Automatic annotation (TrEMBL):
Residue range from the parent sequence: 480 to 763 of 763
Domain EAL: 24-280
Lineage: Bacteria, Bacillati, Actinomycetota, Actinomycetes, Micromonosporales
Protein name in UniProt: Diguanylate cyclase/phosphodiesterase
Length: 284
């Protein structure tokens, strides 16, 4: 009976796997169509400077709007786009579109833009040239662009990935900034922070203290990350800020910037433009 149950489980597992693969293949097909049909959008989430709570920048976040369907969040398709290589053209589009939109905001308000870059994009030999071309055609100065990468881009199972390092080193020599996204959730050693071409740490939202309850462990972790960044002359950006208490804590600990639902959700271009315009005074 135990054997029988084991076999049944195996069959179930096989079927689940097959169903998953089929769904992924279907998504790849639909993503290809989405590229030709122009079904992607960029939403923008304000980045707030904690010292005066002004919006000094935005993070560009992709959205997929298939005709006649509800919007698909990135968590449902970025992984599949990465595995299939489609993230290369999709990521290039996000970069171009974000820089085009934000160059206008930058001229008027000095707004900067942070764009997520996947490991797959950084393996492309032409990635560095692509970024420089996007800046030239959009008119956005290099200092106004932040590339967000995850720890895994730079350090893969303990090994530093040379292609990524060389792209980022070259781009930084032009003035472009690099941020480590979701900092603290990877498994790489801290030693890499000293040697790698980066400017900012984005503290993952899982470190934000639980609202309404004293959370000394979370506070200790956040303080440690902020102190670490300061010691290495890196800027800090807190992600997933949802309450006024969290803002007070972050400011007390010397965090530079914050983003989260407390200030604004990611919003379409027109709404972001309005928020930035209004924030030439203060956001709240
Ligand atoms: P991320 O880069 O860490 O972006 C932050 C995510 O946290 C966004 O989810 C944002 O909506 C969400 N968020 C912001 N503030 C709060 C908050 O206060 N509370 C909570 N609970 N969530 C908050 P989103 O837009 O669904 O994006 C998810 C992930 O998808 C991103 O995480 C990023 O890893 C990836 N992604 C998004 N756009 C792109 C893109 O253009 N290229 C690539 N390669 N990845 C992207
Ligand atoms: Mg990000
Ligand atoms: Mg993040
Ligand atoms: Mg994330």
């Amino acid at each position: 009976a135990a054997k029988e149950a084991g076999r049944n489980q195996m069959i179930l597992f096989d079927e689940e796997l097959r169903a998953k693969r089929l769904a992924a293949a279907r998504t790849v097909h639909r993503l290809r169509e989405a590229i030709t049909r122009d079904e992607f959008l960029v939403y923008f989430q304000p980045l707030v400077r904690l010292a005066d709570e002004r919006i000094i920048g935005v993070e560009a976040l992709i959205r997929w709007q298939p005709a006649g369907e509800s919007m698909v969040p990135p968590d449902r398709f970025i992984g599949i786009a990465e595995d299939s290589g489609l993230i290369v053209p999709i990521g290039a589009w996000v970069l171009r579109e974000s820089c085009r939109v934000v160059s206008g905001w930058h001229r008027r308000h000095g707004t900067v833009v942070s764009v997520n870059v996947s490991p797959r994009q950084l393996r492309e030999p032409d990635f560095g040239l692509l970024v420089l071309d996007v800046l030239r055609t959009s008119g956005l100065p290099p200092e106004a662009l932040i590339l967000e990468i995850t720890e895994g881009v730079l350090v893969n199972s303990g090994k530093v990935t040379e292609q990524a390092i060389s792209h980022l080193g070259m781009l930084r020599s032009h003035g472009i900034k690099v941020a480590i996204d979701d900092f603290g959730t990877g498994y790489s050693s801290l030693a890499y922070l000293r040697d790698l071409p980066i400017d900012n740490l984005k503290i993952d939202r899982s470190f934000m203290p639980t609202p309404g309850s004293p959370d000394p462990a979370a506070q200790t972790l956040i303080k440690t990350i902020i102190d670490l960044a300061a010691g290495l002359h890196l800027g800090t950006i807190a992600e997933g800020v949802e309450t006024a208490e969290q803002v007070v804590l972050l400011r007390d600990l010397g965090c530079d910037r914050a983003q989260g639902f407390f200030y604004s959700r990611p919003v379409p271009e027109a709404d972001a433009a309005r928020l930035i315009q209004d924030s030439t005074t203060a956001i709240r």
